[in-house]
Structure formats: C-alpha cells, structure tokens
Amino acid sequence: MRTARAECTDRLLITGERHLCTVLTRYAEHYNAGRAHRGLDLRAPDDLPNIIPLPAATVRRRQVLGGLLDEYHTTSPRPPHQPQGTPSSAA
To answer: Fewer CB atoms inside 10 A, N or C side of the chain?
Structure first.
C-alpha cells in the first residue's frame, strides 16, 4: 500500500471510485510486469526467472498513467539503413 500511495495515488487527483479502480488496476499491472524490483535483481515479479536479458540496441520508453510512471522496454536492433543506389543515366 505504501508503494502504491507514494508512486501513484499521492500524485494524482482521483475523481471517483471508478477512476480509483482504473488507476489502481493499471498501477498493479505496472508493478507486477513493468517495474524493476531491487529484491528481484531488478526484475519484475512476472518476469521469467530463467531468462537472462541481453542488451539491445534500442530501448523504448512508454508512459503509464498519463506520464506519471515510465516503463522501459527493449526492442530488436534495427538493421542499418542502406541508401538506395542512384540510378545511372543511360545516354
């Protein structure tokens, strides 16, 4: 409860019970799947324990709860850009 209050509800203006349920549901998803936990070696509780994350070339940030929280996800490295060859003029 303390973490949910400190990271979420204390920073938002909750407008009603339905809004509170939506915010807490989304925060619980973030807490279990997207938030790093120091006690779990910076893994989320829902991460698979036998998979070693490999460094990726690209990290994407996704804002949660209107930018209150940030989640970071790795994406596959993109292949290098290969410019199109210039057409030769046939004169």
So the answer is: C
